[in-house]
Amino acid sequence: MKNVLYIFAMVVICFSGEIYAQAKIKFKTETIDYGDIAKGADGVRVFEFTNTGNQPLVITEVLSSCGCTVPKKPDAPIAPGKTGVIEVKYDTQRVGPIRKTITVSSNADTPIVALKIKGQVITPQ
Fold first, then answer.
1. How many Å apart are CA 65 and CA 115, to the nearest integer?
2. How far apart are CA 73 and CA 51, in angstroms?
3. pLDDT, tens digit (0-9, with 9 covering 90-100), for 94-112
């Protein structure tokens, strides 16, 4: 009976370690405000993040809510404690308000994160 309890306890300990071994993504900010930006200006911005987990973080997909916004994900996994960036390029040839969402999918404990960009593209006077 003691052997059965010992084996059961070891199995529980092993599996509980697997449950807590996970990547975690923490963004420096989840919203980038372009403010007023001139038509034709550089529309590239970056979302910086850190893997605060204890397993490599793999960004599997980064999608935009509009074809006017082109996101770029990291190609390689991000090691625990390391930082990475998701680059976003907005087409500043389109005059008017900016209100877009970038959806990030990964193997993190929060597998989907919605990032926002906002601002106003204006015609220079």
1. 10
2. 14
3. 999 999 999 999 999 999 9
The predicted-structure confidence for 38-78, as pLDDT tens digits, reads as follows: 999 999 999 999 999 999 999 999 999 999 999 999 999 99
Token pair in block for residue 109: 């404990």
What is the DSSP track for 61-109? EEEESSTTEEEE--SSPBPTT-EEEEEEEE-TTS-EEEEEEEEEEESBS
Quote the CA–CA distance of 113 and 38 in Å, as a whole number. Answer: 29
d(C-alpha 32, C-alpha 104), whole Å: 15
CATH of the domain at 44: 2.60.40.10
| Whole-number Å distance between alpha carbons of 120 and 20 | 43
Domain that holds residue 107: 2-122
